[in-house]
């Protein structure tokens, strides 16, 4: 699509095959997203994750045509291998969902630069590298879309999760810039910011056990719907659950209140005496992907 062409809506297309690729698809939000997109008319789903047995089982249960690629996105060759597969099998790509990621819960004093580096590598660098590899295919398939799964932590960082917050904030900022850059090429870029979602690494037991905080916990299925809003219906930004958008507004309109909350959370962190375990924060919202051991595609 030439520069300056009008933006089209995937949802307005007549039913036909459209190809969606989802990273981190072996569990949690990625799995829920695959199941939701498979319901779209004409959808063909490509699942990307490291755990072959889970991908195989998921692909077998989807109502739409489904295939999978076993890949670790930290592998230098993974993006090119994924592109080659999609080009050879489909010749097009209509939706890229960048969902793969990992959690990080350690203070900077405990985790240092290495914790930041390793978290950025999968939560940000890997998403950028895959998008770069697939961008030409997305442009040639326009109107198409990229959905980057960030986190509420990008807007409301909490102490003890600095590496994670930084990686998700980087993903959010890059998404905003990329959206403006690719609009004229027909490639929409949507951003989804999940809040408290039960996952393998964040069961959210503490929040679910209290009536006054239970409302804060949403589901992977609701995030999957938000991803469809951002990708298929081309929304710019979606929070899940929706009320969490008020938290981002609060940070802008009442920064002192937001800062006081951060200080309160910091005061609750465990000590860091010599030989102690790295401090862990009881963050109010979870990472959108599964645990470190499972998170990468």
* Class inferred from helices and paired strands: alpha/beta
Strand adjacency order, main sheet: 3-2-1-4-5-6-7
Q: Provide the CATH topology.
A: Rossmann fold
Poorly predicted parts: 1-15, 265-295
Number of beta strands: 7
Structure summary:
The chain has 297 residues and is an alpha/beta fold. Helix content is 44%, strand content 13%.
Write up this protein.
The two termini are 30 Å apart. The protein is globular. Helix 3 runs parallel beside helix 4 (108-140) and helix 4 runs parallel beside helix 5. The chain has a single domain, classed as Rossmann fold (3-Layer(aba) Sandwich). It is built from eleven helices and seven strands. It has helices at 28-37, 52-61, 78-89, 108-140, 162-182, 205-208, 211-214, 220-231, 245-253, 255-267, 292-295, and strands spanning 18-23, 43-49, 66-70, 95-98, 144-149, 187-194, 237-240. The chain is an alpha/beta fold and 297 residues long. Helix 5 (162-182) links the parallel strand 5 (144-149) and strand 6 (187-194).
Which helices and strands, and how do they pair?
Layout: E1 18-23, H1 28-37, E2 43-49, H2 52-61, E3 66-70, H3 78-89, E4 95-98, H4 108-140, E5 144-149, H5 162-182, E6 187-194, H6 205-208, H7 211-214, H8 220-231, E7 237-240, H9 245-253, H10 255-267, H11 292-295
Parallel strand pairs: 1-2, 1-4, 2-3, 4-5, 5-6, 6-7
Helix pairs in contact: 1-8, 3-4, 4-5, 9-10
For the structure shown, list the relevant keywords.
globular, Rossmann fold, 11 helices, alpha/beta, 7 strands, disordered C terminus, 7-stranded parallel beta sheet, 297 residues
